[in-house]
Write a structure and sequence with these properties.
The chain is mainly beta and about 150 residues long. The protein has one domain: Nucleoside Triphosphate Pyrophosphohydrolase, CATH 3.90.79.10. It has two helices and seven strands.
């Protein structure tokens, strides 16, 4: 079984807009949280800050660790060409706020756009499941229809 550890950030501004990146790898494109895989030896918090900057152009401060999502993807559902083993993903999710930078798009990476979306509109976007899980972890289930509040 392969393992992928990644770090992501829930960034909501004063106008209740969520920062998302448009993921363009795999079988379908979808909106996701800015974030991604850790480099060898990289601290998860550093990875989250780096990935947010790479995908959106914003510098962020991490406020708190919201949680970790653990998921096993069967080998036949993997997007990596030639991969046949199941993939265990650990998605570390932080709450963050913008401290600098300006919106820009990643070039040559796994995302091709970024943008701010009203929390009330996120449910209508084509998005990955992690967005719903992270919004629940962050306590935004009342502003994002269809998201169950995180328990535990």
């Amino acid at each position: 079984m392969d393992l992928r550890v990644a770090a992501y950030a829930v960034v909501v501004d004063a106008a209740d807009r969520l920062l998302l990146a448009h993921w363009n790898e795999g079988r379908r494109a979808a909106w996701t949280l800015p974030g991604g895989g850790l480099e060898p030896g990289e601290d998860p918090a550093s990875a989250a800050r780096r990935e947010v900057f790479e995908e959106t152009g914003f510098d962020v401060e991490l406020v708190e660790l919201l949680g970790i999502n653990s998921r096993v993807i069967p080998g036949n559902r993997r997007i990596t060409p030639g991969a046949t083993e199941p993939l265990h993903t650990l998605q570390i999710v932080y709450r963050a706020h913008v401290t600098g930078g300006s919106l820009r798009y990643e070039v040559g990476g796994s995302t091709d756009r970024a943008g701010w979306f009203a929390l009330s509109e996120v449910a209508q976007l084509q998005h990955v499941r992690l967005v719903d899980l992270a919004l629940g972890m962050a306590g935004y289930s009342d502003q994002h229809p269809g998201v169950a509040a995180a328990s535990g």
